[in-house]
Amino acid sequence: MPQxxxxxxxxxxxxxxxxxxxxxxxxxxxxxxxxxPETLVRKFVEAKSAWVEKHLKKLQARIAPAKQYLAGExxxxxxxxxxxxxxxxxxxxxxxxxxxxxQLQVTLFDGHTGAQRINEIQDAILRLYLETGxxxxxxxxxxxxxxxxxxxxxxxxxxxxxxxxxCSPSNRLCFNRKLIMAPPEVVEYVVIHEVCHxxxxxxxxxxxxxxxxxxxxxxxxxxxxxxxxxxLSL
Length: 234
Prior knowledge:
Layout: E1 6-11, E2 19-23, E3 27-33, H1 38-62, E4 74-77, E5 80-89, E6 96-100, E7 103-109, H2 114-148, E8 154-158, E9 165-167, E10 172-176, H3 184-196, H4 205-214, H5 218-228
Parallel strand pairs: 1-3, 5-7, 8-10
Antiparallel strand pairs: 2-3, 4-5, 6-7, 9-10
Helix pairs in contact: 2-3, 3-4, 3-5
């Protein structure tokens, strides 16, 4: 029996075969036509179990360990690592976070203990990331939309798992909040990618030529995201 769980997704295609994939956040996914009995699905998974377990181990080794939000921990911020320092205040106050030199400084009330303390630190860091992130990304979007002579309706930074950015039919630009941890040139590539979709609503050769006009190294920046995305955990 396999030592892992999997999610079974049924398809309506009659001729479609059984397919297995491993997603960093969704886990093991098996796609099977509606007419295939579960007994055959289980046999299929068992036959692939050695391959799955091998790749799950490789995937686990690439995933960044969960943050503990303790002093001395390192946190990524626009491609740089910052040492988390914690200052405790004797009077009740809102927990704050700021970047100073090579440190990520958090100040909080010393009455916060246990899980509440961790949540306060985590929430303060997230607020800092989102507030500075939206400012940086908005500045970059404004720059490139001006260059192209196009307009957007709004900008959002959201918690999403499988995409780095999107451009809706209403010209709404959405960016993955994990980008705030990526190097500036990678962030800029994603911004350019989505802004170019305001001109070309596809991934045609014209689209990529437009991206290359503003980011000649876009292929390397795209590869960086593919190789390092598991290290960006926010």
